[in-house]
Each structure stands twice: as structure tokens, then as C-alpha cells.
Amino acid sequence: MKAVGLYKYLPIDNEESLIDIIIERPLPKGKELLVQIKAISVNPVDTKVRSPKDVVESEPKILGWDASGIVVDAGEECTLFQPGDEVFYAGSLIRQGTYSEFHLVDERIVGIKPKTLTFPESAAMPLTAITAWEALFERLGIDPSNKIDNGAKTVLMIGGAGGVGSIAIQLAKWAGLQVIATASREETIIWVQECGADFVINHYHSLKDQLVNLQINNVDYIFCLNDTDQHWKGMTEVIKPQGKICSIVDNKYPIELNALKSKSVTFVWEFMFTKAMFETEDMISQHQILNKVSDLINEGIIKTTLKETLSPINAKNLRKAHAMLESGKTIGKIVIESFE
Q1: Which domain holds residue 259?
Q2: Which end of the chain is more exposed for a tag (fewer CB within 10 A), N or C?
């Protein structure tokens, strides 16, 4: 089967950074599904794993985690899906990825593809939707069913125009929260407003000063999607006493947690691959989350965050997509569809 992989970890402008390859089609066992890939999307984690390093693989490394497709075979322990089912999912960081015609995935992290979306529109959603859902409703502890109480609470999303921010804004609005998103360019400001942000501020300027100008003294929750180090001081200034901060962005320098002590503020990480990597007891929750997201999409409550589609799925287009991500200027999600 066709796939796109790598042997060397190289800059994306090197044609060997991602190459077209032919590999053997895998067979599912246990709880594995074999999915025929129809569309994939790229995420920052793709570029981070591919980033230059002094490692040479003896077997091709296949990246990619977001995907939508059709189940063509299932392991003997599968109970949730059967051949013919249309699905979407974000895969596991410790397994081969979705840059391939057929892909093995544990059914406990797979959801039913939204009926109202195409395969490309669906492929844009899983990783970011799970990340946003877990961050808001598990890590920050927001109860999406308590919309009346949530209406009096605010969440600040730093870096609202990216893939995760685009869906997190929609989920937060569905839960009843008042959403303040950051964006710095005209096109990203428009995008986060279209996603439902109540207020937009610029993350290159003082968060505190801008919130005061909006007559908002502090916020109940912060979801950091852009440069934890850069925004740490600003976040500690504007978080409400006993508030909560969640980040998905690695820090390069020590975080001054003492800055949170006087306010008794909670800080927590979100990493959506945790459940699959460690096969946690609640691993199946990602199946449930994706099914709920699928329902919300079918009901017209949230929309796909697909912004640009490339075709076909090959090394050239994936190098292009990685370069676009690495520019730091992307809005929403980039999807690649169809093998030739």
C-alpha cells in the first residue's frame, strides 16, 4: 500500500524529509480496526515529531494522527465497529501514523464520522476536538450541562485562531461560557469571531490592560494554546483567585508556580495522547467524546474547522502542509485528501 514516511529527521525544505513509500498492508488483531484512509489533517505534533534530530530509522517512520475513513476489517475483540462503518479519530502517538492508505487503530479511540460532513471536513476535527473537550471539561472541570452557572464565568483562550482554539471556542460557547480569545491579525480576528468569541484581544499586548478596558478584572479559566513561557506572567496576573489554567504548549524555561500560590490557582497540562499511550482505564472516553462531537456537528451546534484542503495525499503535499504549519500563520486546519 502507498504511504508517506521518513528515515531521516530533516528540515521540511529537504525533499527527503517526507518521502513516498510502499509498505505492506497491516492486519488487525484484538481491538484494532483496519481503516481505509480517505482524508488526513496535519497538526503541530506532526511537525514536532518530524523536526531535525540525529536519528536514522531502519524502518520507515509514518507520521500523522488525524484521519477519517472507512473500516475495512476488525480484530476479533472489536465490538464497537464493523466493516463499512465511516469513522474519524486521532490515533496514538506510539503507533505508526495515518499517512498511509490503510491504518490500524484501537477502536476505543475511534468515533462515528459526522453524517453531515465530508471525509475532509471530518478529518479536520478529531485531535483538536478531543484536546479542547478534555481541556475544558476534564482538566478545567467545566460542566457543560450547567449552562446557567457557566453564563457568569469567563474563559480566556490564548491563541484562538489555531486548530484547537477554533473548536475550543465553539465548545465553550455551547457550554454557556463567555469567551475571550486572542488574535493578532485581521484575518484571525475575523475567524475567532466567526467561531463565536465574545471578545477578541491581542496576545502581543498586555492581557491585563486589555481586559480592564473591557471592564473584565479577571477570568475564571485560561486555556493557553500559544507559548506558555511568553504568556505566563500575563496569565498569572489575570486569573481569578481559585481559578484554573490549562496549557497544551511545552515550556522551554522553568515555570514560576509560586506566582499562583497566593491565589490558590490550579495549573494543569492537557495532552490528548495520554489515554492511548498508557491505555488508561478511561481510554474509551475518547470514543465517547468523538461520538458526542459528531452529534453536535450533525445538530449544527459546532462546525468543522477545515480551512484549506490539498489533494492527493503524497509526500509533496505533506511537505507543503508541514511548511504551512511551521510558518505559524495558519488558521483552522489543513487537510489532505485521497491517495492517487
Answers
A1: 131-269
A2: C
